[in-house]
Structures are given as C-alpha cells and as structure tokens.
C-alpha cells in the first residue's frame, strides 16, 4: 500500500486556495531535526529540545532572506496523531508560502505524503483502529450535518468496542472447539454441544440485530432532495439560480419522471441539498401532472422536502397553495417570491394570509434582490433536520465494507449452527466447526483491522486527501 512507513513525510493539511492561515504537517523519525532547520523560535529554544507538546512562536526560514512569521506545534512520539515525532507549521495561507515551505522540507529529506498516509500511520502504529480511520475519511468528505454526525458517531469507538467484544467471544469458542481436536483422545470435555449451540445462537442474534439496526453510510452520504413546485410565473428559475449560484441552463437533467427535472446542489449553511425544478404548473393544467411528478419523485426516494413557490406580487387563489398536496406526508415549505415589488403593508397582509392557509413554514423572498434568502436557507435546513432527525442518533453506522464483513460473519456463524444442530453428547465435527468459526472471526477482525491485507488497507485509505 505505502512504499515505506519508516521515513519522514510532509504535506499541506489545509484546504487549497488563499486563507488567513495555512498548515503544513510533517511526521516521521527526522521530523524534529527538520523543524530545527526551518524554524527560529522567538525565545531561542530549538524545537528538538522542547519537551512534550509545545507551541512555539517565531519565524520560518523558507529560503535565503525569506523569513515568514508563524507558529510551530510540536508533538512528540507516542503522544501524536501518527504516534511518531510530528509537527505542524501554521503560516499565512498564501499558496506560494505553503509551496516554499514544502520545497524547503522536501529539500531537507522529507517525502511528500500520499493520500491518507498520516492516518494510515496512525492505524499502523496502533493509535486508531480501522473503523476510526474510516470515520476520519467520512469527516473529511462530509457535506452535511448528518454526515458529520455519522463520522463523529463512528469516532467514539462504540461500534469498534462492540466488535471487539464479539471477537473475544468467538475466539473463546474457537479455542474450546480446537481443544476438542487437540485432545480428542483424552476424556476431557471442553464444551458441550448444548452450550456451543447456545453461544452460537446468541452470537447470531447479536449479528442479526446489528444489521437490522444499522444505517448505511451510502444513505447518509446521499444529499436530501428538495422539489420546487408552483406556477410557471412564480420565479422558480430565478430562485434556483440565486440559491445555487449557477445558471439553471447548466444544471444536469435528472431522469426517471414524465418530464426532465433540472437539479442544482445548494448550500443551506449546516449542509447541502439538491434542489429539483421542473416546468411550472400553468393555470390551464389540472395539477395532476405536477402531483404525479411529485409523487413519482417521492416514491423513488429522491424528495425530502417540497418547496411551493408562489408569485407574491400577483393575485392568486388558494388553489395554488394546494399544488403538490398528493404527497401530504412530505414536509413542506411555502415561499412567496417577488417581494421586491411589494410595499410593507402588502407584505404584512401576504404573510398573514400564507401563515393562515399554507401548510408548513412560510418564507417571503426576492430572488432578484436576495431579500429573505438567508432566512429561506435556515427554514429549509430546519425542515430537513426535522424530517431526518433520527437518522444518526441511535443507529449503528456501517460502511459497505463493514456491512459486508458483518454479513460474512453472520453467514459463518449460521453455518456453524447448522453443523452443530444434530450433535448429541460430543462434538463430532470439530474441524468443520472450527473452520466456520475462524471464518466468522476473520470477518469481524477485518472490520477493526486486527486482520488486514494490503488490498483492504488500500481500499480504506484511497478516499483520503493528501495531508490527512
């Protein structure tokens, strides 16, 4: 997976682009020596002589006659993320400064880190298990509060501790069954068939429960979808352009409905969502076509929220507020657009009317001036959070790899149960039982990384970015 884990690596750990602060991270056996070469402490203390964790303020010597102010954070092994001697350089976040610092450190012998290599070293050096490593990757790529909560949930280690406990119980069963093989000629009974079946049944039940209560990260990773509905003159196109910051004409079509639905990803402050927009429901239409499109999208699992857009500057009857009512179970927000054309008195009347007759929260906005857009983002985020409030609170969150491993372990335990079903007083097929139990043990051990292969680690760390 990684060519060498005994050298010193370096990478930019902050996001690309300009920022007030940039971070360069370095880890390995020569890290403190490199820090001595590139950093001058204001107090005169060299980094390699600083005890334990330390924050030093001073100057970074990047090249002749180029001194950059910054801070150096030192982490001595084993009390660091990678469990190696490490340091972080916090400097002004200009890309040119970070590039010069990288060039200086690589010129002194450090190697540019590969994606995920810092976290891989944390795992290989015993600092974290594989589930926590995957949680780091999930946190890096999180695009919503739900995804970040899922990553934090995995970082607590509760799932890993549960797997470790199952591994311990399986290992005990393997030892007892294999002892029957090793001492087959001795009149010693290490475990009776009844006790074996009872323990296997308990393990199978726990694995079944784990899978039943598990929430897949694939579902967490899918962004919530908001469907815009309304008459064609309500300003939906202008609204989706304003919220997404893009021209609607470049949004990609989403297939699977009777009409093409255009989509755009929007930011709601606490996360992102996909906004869907289709042709408006004209006055001479029955509304059935729009209701069918809404119902189809909702049934396909793509719609988390309906956003009904009305033209606040035009006269409209209450039938407009019932567009999309075929999906009564879907949360709903009503948005009155074009308020830039209204005076304050009319605005108050419009708000009172909508709050009295519309379903769900109400927002008054102008997709031209941007008035009310921040409030709309907050309302949409609140509505989605309420809809998905229980998504990550109590469920065990599994990646596809972890779910496959739990299922493999369950199948092996079920096969062992089948083999032990007709055993009477002695364990006659101990070799077959031991083989199945070891299969289950290996599957669970692969989850936390106590049994690994280069291919497995490669797949886990491939999704990381450089510097993590």
| Order of strands, widest sheet | 3-4-5-6-2-1-7
Strand content: 15-25%
Stretches with pLDDT under 50, minimum 5 residues: 248-259, 295-301, 386-393
Identify the CATH homologous superfamily of the largest domain. P-loop containing nucleotide triphosphate hydrolases
Counting structural domains, the number is 3
From the 3D structure, determine the CATH topology of the largest domain: Rossmann fold
Label the structural class: alpha/beta
Give the CATH level 1 class of the largest domain.
Alpha Beta
Mean pLDDT: 80
The description of the largest β-sheet is: 7 strands, mixed
Amount of helix: 40-55%
Give the number of DSSP strands: 16
Write structural notes for this entry.
There is one protein chain. The chain is of the alpha/beta class. The chain has 3 domains: 9-129, Probable tRNA modification gtpase trme, domain 1 (Gyrase A, domain 2, 2-Layer Sandwich); 140-216 and 396-449, Four Helix Bundle (Hemerythrin (Met), subunit A) (Up-down Bundle); 225-387, Rossmann fold (3-Layer(aba) Sandwich). Helices cover 43% and strands 18% of the residues. The chain contains 15 helices and 16 strands. It has a 7-stranded mixed sheet with strand order 3-4-5-6-2-1-7. Strands 10-11-12-9-13-14-15 form a 7-stranded mixed sheet, with helices on both faces. It has a two-stranded parallel sheet with strand order 8-16. A hairpin with a 2-residue loop joins strand 4 (54-63) and strand 5 (66-75). Helix 4 packs antiparallel against helix 5 (145-155), helix 7 runs antiparallel to helix 13 (400-420) and helix 13 (400-420) runs antiparallel to helix 14. Mean pLDDT is 80; it is low at 248-259, 295-301 and 386-393.
């Amino acid at each position: 997976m990684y060519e060498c884990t005994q050298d010193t690596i370096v990478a930019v750990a902050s996001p690309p682009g300009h920022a007030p602060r940039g971070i360069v991270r370095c880890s390995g056996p020569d890290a403190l020596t490199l820090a001595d070469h590139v950093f001058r402490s204001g107090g005169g203390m060299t980094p390699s002589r600083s005890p334990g964790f330390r924050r030093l303020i001073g100057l970074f010597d990047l090249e002749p006659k180029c001194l950059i102010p910054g801070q150096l954070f030192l982490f001595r092994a084993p009390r660091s993320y990678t469990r190696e001697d490490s340091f972080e350089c916090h400097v002004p976040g200009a890309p040119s400064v970070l590039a010069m610092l990288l060039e200086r450190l690589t010129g002194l012998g450090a190697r540019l880190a590969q994606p995920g290599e810092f976290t891989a070293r944390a795992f290989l050096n015993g600092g974290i298990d594989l589930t926590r490593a995957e949680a780091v990757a999930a946190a890096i790529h999180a695009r919503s509060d739900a995804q970040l909560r899922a990553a934090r949930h995995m970082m607590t280690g509760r799932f890993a501790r549960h797997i470790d406990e199952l591994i311990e119980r399986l290992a005990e069963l393997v030892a007892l069954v294999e002892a029957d093989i090793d001492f087959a000629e001795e009149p010693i009974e290490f475990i009776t068939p009844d006790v074996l079946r009872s323990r296997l049944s308990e393990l199978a039940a726990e694995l079944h429960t784990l899978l039943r209560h598990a929430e897949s990260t694939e579902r967490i990773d899918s962004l919530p979808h908001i469907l815009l509905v309304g008459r064609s003159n309500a300003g939906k196109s202008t609204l989706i352009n304003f919220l997404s910051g893009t021209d609607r004409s470049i949004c990609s079509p989403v297939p699977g409905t009777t009409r093409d639905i255009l989509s755009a990803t929007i930011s709601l402050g606490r996360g992102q969502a996909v906004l869907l927009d289709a042709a408006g429901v004209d006055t001479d239409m029955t509304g059935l076509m729009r209701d069918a499109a809404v119902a189809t999208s909702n049934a396909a699992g793509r719609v988390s929220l309906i956003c009904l857009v009305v033209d606040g500057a035009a006269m409209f009857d209450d039938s407009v507020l019932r567009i999309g009512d075929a999906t009564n179970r879907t949360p709903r927000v009503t948005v009155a657009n074009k308020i830039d054309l209204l005076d304050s008195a009319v605005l108050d009347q419009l708000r009172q009317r909508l709050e009295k007759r519309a379903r769900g929260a109400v927002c008054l906005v102008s997709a031209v001036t941007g008035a009310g857009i921040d409030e709309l983002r907050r309302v949409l985020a609140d509505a989605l959070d309420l809809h998905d409030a229980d998504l990550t609170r109590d469920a065990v969150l599994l990646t596809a790899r972890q779910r496959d491993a739990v299922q493999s372990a369950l199948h092996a335990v079920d096969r062992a149960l089948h083999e032990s079903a007709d055993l009477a007083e002695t364990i006659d097929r101990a070799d077959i039982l031991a083989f199945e139990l070891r299969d289950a043990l290996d599957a669970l051990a692969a989850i936390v990384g106590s049994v690994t292969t280069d291919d497995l680690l490669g797949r886990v760390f491939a999704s990381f970015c450089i510097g993590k």
